[in-house]
Automatic annotation (TrEMBL):
GO terms for molecular function: flavin adenine dinucleotide binding; FMN binding; tRNA binding; tRNA-dihydrouridine20 synthase activity; tRNA-dihydrouridine20a synthase activity. The lineage of its organism: Bacteria, Pseudomonadati, Pseudomonadota, Betaproteobacteria, Burkholderiales. NCBIfam families: PRK11815.1 (NF008774), yjbN (TIGR00742). Its cofactor is FMN. SUPFAM superfamilies: FMN-linked oxidoreductases. This is tRNA-dihydrouridine(20/20a) synthase. The active site is at residue 100. PROSITE patterns: UPF0034. The keyword Acetylation does not apply. InterPro entries: Aldolase_TIM, DUS-like_FMN-bd, DUS_fam, DusA, tRNA_hU_synthase_CS. It is an enzyme of class 1 (oxidoreductase). Catalyzes the synthesis of 5,6-dihydrouridine (D), a modified base found in the D-loop of most tRNAs, via the reduction of the C5-C6 double bond in target uridines. Specifically modifies U20 and U20a in tRNAs.
Length: 338
């Protein structure tokens, strides 16, 4: 594990774990834009680690630090073993998923449905804390189905905190376990940011991080008046250059001038070449699109962004596995993006 810079000790801003999106290639890309923002893996189930291909799920690049491994599971022994694997592979934090509302996740008896079993979550947290020396954190909703009282989430946090969890990432919506898709669960249940604010007031000794439809630095600044950190979700993916000034704005890294978009692309090229060399780019190996798909939003809001996205989506060029696709896409933008 890398020696940590003291600037990264707080999860002041972070990027949420997002299935099919925040894989290792996405995280390396985000690292070219922000050095200190805390990053999270996609959720990895305990079953995938204990009975599957561990390197495929846990391998990552040193540049990704600080990076947290999010686990999905509800068996304390399995979570403890998986957390230990995460620490051995060098992750900086283990996060337990108590927020995903998908029915597929529910069938595995984890995700948001665990909020109904606070004592079980506490047992799982204790088992993981006993197994590792790194932080064990919990990401959760504010309620499930029609249980909408603040007291529900307060009691959940209070119970789990007794097991030693010090950091709670609060997606400030209810999770509707039946009848809504995961996408609808991110949009339909009303946001109740005040519940997260109240948790921060009621548990001043805990680190409370807020999550849910936060899209601008102005919104981040507002929330930081009331909570300890802000987690961005889809905005960080679709508009990643939003994070370009996070190091200076939130971590005091005044000497770290942000890369331009063009410099971000240049910085990604060695990584892309390395990954293609390691894994190949034929039908059985790594496809160039596995990396470039995470970069489609880099030019969001810049004239020529559509041209850039179209160039990165050219199936014929992608099939060739030539990273020059990126520099050509940049060169063809009108006007050239900064």
């Amino acid at each position: 594990m890398s020696t940590k810079n003291p600037l990264i000790n707080k999860r002041l801003v972070s990027v949420a774990p997002m299935m099919d999106w925040t894989d290792r290639h996405c995280r390396v890309f985000h690292r070219q834009i922000t050095r200190h923002t805390w990053l999270y893996t996609e959720m990895v189930t305990t079953g995938a680690l204990l009975h599957g291909d561990v390197p495929r799920h846990l391998d990552f690049s040193d540049v990704e630090h600080p990076v947290a491994l999010q686990l999905g599971g509800s068996e304390s022994a399995d979570l403890a073993k998986s957390a230990k694997l995460g620490q051995e592979w060098g992750y900086d934090e283990i996060n337990l998923n108590c927020g995903c509302p998908s029915e597929r996740v529910q069938k595995g008896a984890f995700g948001a449905c665990l909020m109904a079993e606070a004592e079980l979550v506490a047992d799982c947290v204790k088992a993981m804390r006993d197994a590792v020396s790194i932080d064990v954190t919990v990401k959760h909703r504010i309620g499930i189905d029609k249980t909408e009282s603040y007291e529900f989430v307060r009691d959940f946090v209070g119970t789990v905190a007794q097991a030693g969890c010090q950091t709670f990432i609060v997606h400030a919506r209810n999770a509707i376990l039946k009848g809504l898709s995961p996408k609808e669960n991110r949009e339909i249940p009303p946001l109740k940011y005040e519940y997260a604010y109240q948790l921060a007031r009621d548990f001043p000794e805990l680190e409370i991080i807020i999550n849910g439809a936060i899209k601008t630095t102005e919104e981040i600044d507002f929330h930081l008046q009331y909570v300890d950190g802000v987690m961005l979700g889809r905005e960080a993916y679709h508009n990643p250059y939003l994070m370009a000034d996070f190091d200076s704005r939130y971590y005091g890294a005044a000497d770290a001038a942000p890369k331009t978009r063009a410099e971000v692309i240049e910085a990604m090229l060695p990584y892309i070449r390395q990954q293609l060399a390691l894994h190949g780019h034929d039908g059985k190996g790594l496809r160039l699109n596995s990396i470039t798909r995470h970069m489609l939003g880099l030019m969001a809001g810049v004239p020529g962004a559509k041209s850039f996205r179209q160039a990165l989506s050219d199936s014929k060029r992608l099939a060739l596995g030539d990273p020059r696709l990126l520099t050509d896409a940049l060169a063809n933008m009108q006007p050239l993006a900064a």
